[in-house]
Write a structure and sequence with these properties.
With 350 residues, the protein is α/β, with parallel strands linked by helices. The protein has 2 domains: 129 residues, translation initiation factor eif-2b, domain 1 (Four Helix Bundle (Hemerythrin (Met), subunit A), Up-down Bundle), CATH 1.20.120.420; 200 residues, Translation initiation factor eif-2b, domain 2 (Rossmann fold, 3-Layer(aba) Sandwich), CATH 3.40.50. The protein has a 7-stranded mixed beta sheet with strand order 6-5-4-7-10-15-16, sandwiched between helices. It is globular and about 65 Å long. The mean pLDDT is 97. It binds 5-S-methyl-1-O-phosphono-5-thio-D-ribulose. The site of 5-S-methyl-1-O-phosphono-5-thio-D-ribulose has 18 residues, from helix 2 and strand 9.
Length: 350
Amino acid sequence: MQYHSQALPCSIQWNDTHITILNQQELPLKTEFLELYTLEDVYDSIVTLKVRGAPAIGITAAFGTALAAVNSTTEDAESFKSEIKEAITYLAGSRPTAVNLFWALNRMEAELTASVSVNEAKTNLVHEALKIYSEDEATCRQIGEYGLSLFKTGDTIMTICNAGGIATARYGTALAPFHLAGEKDISLKVFACETRPVLQGSRLTAWELMQAGVDVTLITDNMAAHTIKTKGVNAIIVGADRIAANGDTANKIGTFGLAVLARHFNIPFYVAAPSSTFDLTLDSGLEIPIEERKEEEITHIGGTRIAPEHVGVFNPAFDITPGELITGIITEKGIIYKDFTENIQKVLFS
Ligand code: MRU
């Protein structure tokens, strides 16, 4: 299979008057781009998963803040600052679990506070958002390098959800090693779990890796144990939405189950995430807020009801994998091994 390094479209782009995003809701049937002109457009695109994945949410919210600033007609500096702070608070309410959203908005707010005039604030906010974007590309490439060092040609690796190039500025986190392996002609085989209920695995990961020419096979989530047992899966790698100080990790629902399977089959379980995904204000995963989404995501597929009317539904979008089940956390600063409480501090801050 041939690797195509430039095959993936850019998923988020700043265009001075608007933000262009790849509409991830329409993939893989349509490769559609949307232009976001207002703060409400940006908020809606995050809530409805048109743009999704922790780093991409952070980048989009940063661009959204810059857009609010550029669109503002307020001339008085103090009124301008309160207007943009309101915009930041509004965007912060879009999704609760991925800490990259709050991390990016905090950076934007710091830039706003430090600016003296309205014009300076507008310039600085656009500059900061572009910086968040370009840093993410470099960060993901580095995660890919570290991640790839854990695998060898011929390995078979399982993943869930989409922690890929379209969920970041480029390359992705959990999928970055596969993109880099393609560039370096190292052959890896990927099993992608479809990721019920919203199917990020089948709609996005399978599409993304096929676009890039990576060898990917799709399975449903309940095939994971059988596949690991019969297909010689060597490792599991996943992304993250928030990592607590003890290594407990929030990621797409189903991740915890895969970590339990990895322990059963004695294969390594890796989390790949940038340092912006760590929330060291939280001692453990117990404190991470878990988003619960609307029941239609479970009762309907493609607009068609597949469950009885009025059935009770529980739809948590994420679960928490205890640090003790994680072999290593791959960051842009290096791979963190246990003891996580001690080594997260060492690797991230030394
Ligand atoms: O609900 P989603 O699609 O935003 O969930 C995404 C994930 O769980 C990803 O694994 C995570 O955000 C990392 S993306 C690089």
